[in-house]
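FAQ

Q: What does a record look like?
A: Structure on top, sequence underneath. For example:
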């Protein structure tokens, strides 16, 4: 039993000598800073800055997570960001839901689809912009 303990001490001593030799080689190649303990040059100011950086990083990660958060919407997952946006896809004049991306221009500017723009607005923009709509009884 005693022989096992002695062998362990010799093996441990050899291992420590090997570690010291590696550390010495690193010190010679890269300087004293390479083998110093990380907290050797740490002070309260560096700690405060570090904690501030950690908080900032956590806020940024949280903001990114909120943007990419997915919500179950009728059996499929959609970005929460997309659900919070109001889309102008349904023409308030003719009540037609449009998949045409070209209608977006007319929806944003005149609040109607392209077909309603051609039929009611084109050439009569002033009347349209003053509030006239075809379903309010003024179809002249």
């Amino acid at each position: 039993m005693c022989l096992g303990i002695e062998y362990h001490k010799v093996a441990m001593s050899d291992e420590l000598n090997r570690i010291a030799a590696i550390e010495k080689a690193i010190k010679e190649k890269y300087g004293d800073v390479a083998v110093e303990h990380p907290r050797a040059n740490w002070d309260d100011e560096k700690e405060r800055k570090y904690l501030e950086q950690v908080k900032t990083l956590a806020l940024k990660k949280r903001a990114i997570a909120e943007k990419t958060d997915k919500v179950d919407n009728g059996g499929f997952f959609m970005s929460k960001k997309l659900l919070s946006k109001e889309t102008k896809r349904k023409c308030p004049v003719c009540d037609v839901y449009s998949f045409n991306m070209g209608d977006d221009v007319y929806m944003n500017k005149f609040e109607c689809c392209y077909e309603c723009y051609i039929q009611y607005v084109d050439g009569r923009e002033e009347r349209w912009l003053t509030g006239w709509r075809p379903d309010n009884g003024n179809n002249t």
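Q: Is there anything notable about this one?
A: The chain has three domains: 1-40, 42-85, 86-133.
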